[in-house]
């Protein structure tokens, strides 16, 4: 096994440990949260450094109506939830489930193992209930709600995978319903009017700058190409655009460096441009939209090998840049992010590279 096979940077000791863990069979009965869901390492079928599949033809996206920008003042207040996860978890897919609930799919444990559990999380009291399992344990996947399913696109475990996993909204075990054009991890997805847009990522050996769209999780079309190829970016959709914040550059003279680029994907034309810069390079930040405003929270500065987590929360406005509006109680990166009502929930994540069980909220007030 070589370090190039891993979908996230690891030290030699982690590589040796993970190589050993991959051969063990005793993880199937251990629960992430003290329940009965499975935790396992996934020995994926796709090989490291697989040759990229032919990219689909680039097409602009039409009829992608999403919330429009608001100029109304919005104040954010950061707070710790009165409860936390039973065990630390990061790099999961976190999606809204309605009825004051969120769904957690997969993720990375504090022991650096990928998870295949699906849990329903009651945000009123932190109660967790098993809601199924993923066919393959993954972390650093993209996720979205599409039709009657929670979708998990790609991700990594021992290597980067191309599978698309679907879990019914009503609960139950997931199934593999399709594949991405090539293996992909460290990517992010956003819902846009019945479709899902996926951007950023890594195929196990190189960047994947293709911006993809799908309406069913089985067929994908390339709608644009990132100007700055990155993994671990943050994404938010507003108006007729998807904004891509930071990440780790892959390829070129800046490969491996954190990026400060703010990229805008125009869904009507299929073009991508760099429209600004972050106050500092960041990867693993969390972007979200509340009341027609785009916000960016957390993320890591420093370097991929020595991350320094950030607690700042910014509001982003095209043409005006970033304005700090709040602080997170705990500086984190690579957390789950989902919006319920007027509150963004930031679940788990990593503080200076160490996985946390903390749950934080950013609540909106104002007109």
Question: If you had to describe this structure to a student in words, what would you say it looks like?
Answer:
The structure is a single chain. A hairpin with a 6-residue loop joins strand 14 (210-214) and strand 15. By secondary structure, the protein is an all-beta fold. A four-stranded antiparallel sheet has the order 1-32-29-28, with no helix packed on it. A four-stranded antiparallel sheet has the order 3-4-6-7, with no helix packed on it. Residues 1-65 have low confidence and may be disordered. The chain has a single domain, classed as Kelch-type beta propeller (Neuraminidase, 6 Propeller). The radius of gyration is 19 Å and the shape is globular. Helix content is 3%, strand content 43%. The chain starts with 11 loop residues before the first helix and ends with a strand. It contains one helix and 32 strands.
Q: How many H/I helices?
A: 1
What strand line-up does the widest sheet have? 1-32-29-28
Described by strand count, sense and barrel closure, the largest sheet is: 4 strands, antiparallel
Number of strands: 32
Provide the low-confidence segments as ranges: 1-65
CATH topology name, in short, is: Neuraminidase
Class from helix and strand fractions? mainly beta
- How many domain regions? 1
The dominant shape is globular
Alpha carbon gyration radius: 19 Å
Query: What percent of residues are in strands?
Result: 35-45%
Q: Under the CATH scheme, which architecture would be assigned?
A: 6 Propeller
* Residues in helix, %: under 10%
